[in-house]
């Protein structure tokens, strides 16, 4: 992160949400009350869905939860190392993967903004007051017993997210072979016609991956992706114009091959065994499906919604906006 990201929050009036919180510079003080509050806020993010706390942005006085202006922190009084030490010493167990971005506001001074990037944790974290907190309505609220148990169960089931990318393929259209075309000039002599202009066709493929972000092996997986039928190249069953594409983590192994004689000598046809589930290791991903899509999908900027069912985990869902999906040229 850099200063442009901080200015973007303010200029575009990005409101606080489950994954984003603004704190004025006064939130970073060396009193017990303030450091305990830091442990409360950071642990709440880890116990919920992760996110970013920005220390050094003042909230709007009237429209709460909207950023108003940069309220920098003096790095000589509050260092990045001090903030990191407070977070790690006042939260139990320690949160792995926290990143603190120190963003300089003025090159000629020690004014900075600290953006604390907090990952979603696979266990419950206790603040310094021996309570467990969660993010709720822009605030850090105490968790109920069942909510703590739910967080603790994150380590007992795989966590599957759907990742999408778009492959752009451009190929020359091959025309059928024929005799050279000729035309006649003014003197009646035949001359070869100019070469035809090459034509190209562009095709877009939506590639779907399942990534296991948990710590448990994923054995059996079913997933569904919703996409409007008008944006698909191939025909699929749809309901009210929406196709609910089914995917699973199955593969078929080549167990044998059959030789087919031909005039040119012949060729081999592979024989496949029965389908089997292909487990997904923690941190690894598996490609589930390639889907041919129309270029009209980029005009609508739709949200592609997905849901995943995996082993004994609760169903997990989410969405991806087309404009946010990376496009790769093949």
UniProtKB/TrEMBL annotation:
What residue range is the signal peptide?
A: none
Task: For this UniProt record, give its keywords in alphabetical order, as a comma-separated list.
Answer: ATP-binding, Nucleotide-binding
Single GO term (MF): ATP binding
Domain Schlafen AlbA-2, residue spans: 16-143
Q: Which Pfam families did the record assign?
A: SLFN_AlbA_2
Family annotation (InterPro entries): Schlafen_AlbA_2_dom, Schlafen_AlbA_2_dom_sf
Answer whether the UniProt record assigns the keyword Nucleotide-binding to this protein. Answer: yes
Task: State the source organism's domain of life.
Answer: Bacteria
Name of protein:
ATP-binding protein
Species of origin reads Flavobacterium endoglycinae
């Amino acid at each position: 992160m850099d200063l442009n990201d901080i200015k973007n929050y303010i200029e575009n009036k990005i409101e606080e949400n489950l994954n984003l919180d603004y704190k004025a510079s006064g939130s970073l003080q060396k009193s017990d009350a303030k450091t305990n509050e830091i442990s409360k806020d950071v642990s709440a993010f880890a116990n919920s869905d992760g996110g970013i706390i920005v220390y050094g942005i003042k909230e709007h006085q009237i429209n709460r939860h909207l950023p108003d202006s940069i309220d920098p922190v003096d790095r000589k009084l509050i260092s990045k190392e001090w903030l990191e030490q407070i977070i790690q010493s006042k939260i139990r167990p320690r949160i792995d993967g926290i990143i603190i971005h120190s963003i300089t506001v003025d090159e000629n001074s020690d004014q900075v903004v600290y953006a604390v990037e907090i990952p979603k944790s696979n266990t419950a974290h206790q603040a310094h007051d021996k309570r467990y907190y969660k993010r709720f309505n822009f605030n850090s609220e105490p968790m109920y017993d069942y909510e703590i148990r739910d967080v603790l169960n994150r380590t007992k089931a795989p966590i599957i997210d759907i990742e999408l990318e778009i492959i752009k393929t451009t190929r020359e259209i091959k025309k059928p072979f024929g005799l050279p075309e000729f035309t006649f000039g003014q003197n009646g002599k035949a001359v070869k016609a100019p070469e035809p202009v090459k034509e190209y066709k562009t095709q877009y493929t939506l590639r779907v991956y399942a990534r296991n972000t948990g710590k448990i092996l994923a054995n059996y997986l079913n997933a569904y992706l919703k996409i409007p039928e008008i944006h698909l190249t191939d025909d699929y069953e749809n309901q009210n114009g929406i196709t609910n594409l089914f995917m699973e983590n199955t593969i078929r192994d080549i167990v044998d091959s059959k030789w087919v004689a031909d005039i040119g000598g012949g060729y081999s046809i592979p024989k496949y065994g029965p389908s089997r589930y292909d487990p997904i290791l923690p941190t690894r991903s598996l490609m589930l499906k390639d889907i041919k899509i129309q270029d009209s999908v980029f005009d609508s900027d739709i949200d592609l919604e997905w849901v995943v069912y995996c082993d004994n985990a609760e169903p997990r869902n989410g969405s991806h906006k087309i404009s946010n999906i990376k496009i790769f040229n093949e």
